[in-house]
Amino acid sequence: MPDLSRLMPLPPTAATDGRHALRERIRSALTEALVNGTLAPGQEYEEARLAAHLGAPSAPLREALLLLASQRLVEYAAPETVRVTTADTDTARHAAVVLHGLYRTALLTAPWPLTDDGLDALRNSAAAYARAVAHRNAAEAAAAERALWSVLVHACRNRPLYDAVTQLAPVWQRAQHLAIPLPTEPGDTWDSLLTACAAGDRQRALRCLDDHWGRAGGVTSA
Question: Which of 32, 210, 209 lies closest to 122, judged by CA?
Fold first, then answer.
């Protein structure tokens, strides 16, 4: 029987959530567990056991799992049992290509220059990435990178784009965590992008974005 000891139960405050909020809370918890490998590829989990461990009602849990199935992070192996899908290289490469386009659109359509709050959020995400690399924590590094690109997504205020990124980013993030090695040193991974954004140089920032995602796609296809 798969081990669920690393899967954190929902906090007691979840009991006061409305149905939609509870479903999204469950979805977020399960997404994090899928991305960091707590729910491991190939393992099967019964809905009832997941609900009991999380302390979640069965109906919003099922709704959250169906949403994760639409992202191809899980699939139904039986009517009430889900299997964690494998993070194959083709899916990762395709996800990187589409995310590249989405983040590019976000950068091109966001109000420019970015606000001071936006720049601070970029710097904080870059610092979190550097700390995660220093501690060899792939899950935290992936989360920090996702937060960095999300600054641009939130800035452009394009809800369809936000929905598309929300749907696809966990697929890439899981592949990144499970298959792509961390750099030996964080170095200046985000320095050029931060400098360009701080200077209000959109074209230079765009070149930094294209360079990063071009290399990311190359890693996943190797």
Answer: 209
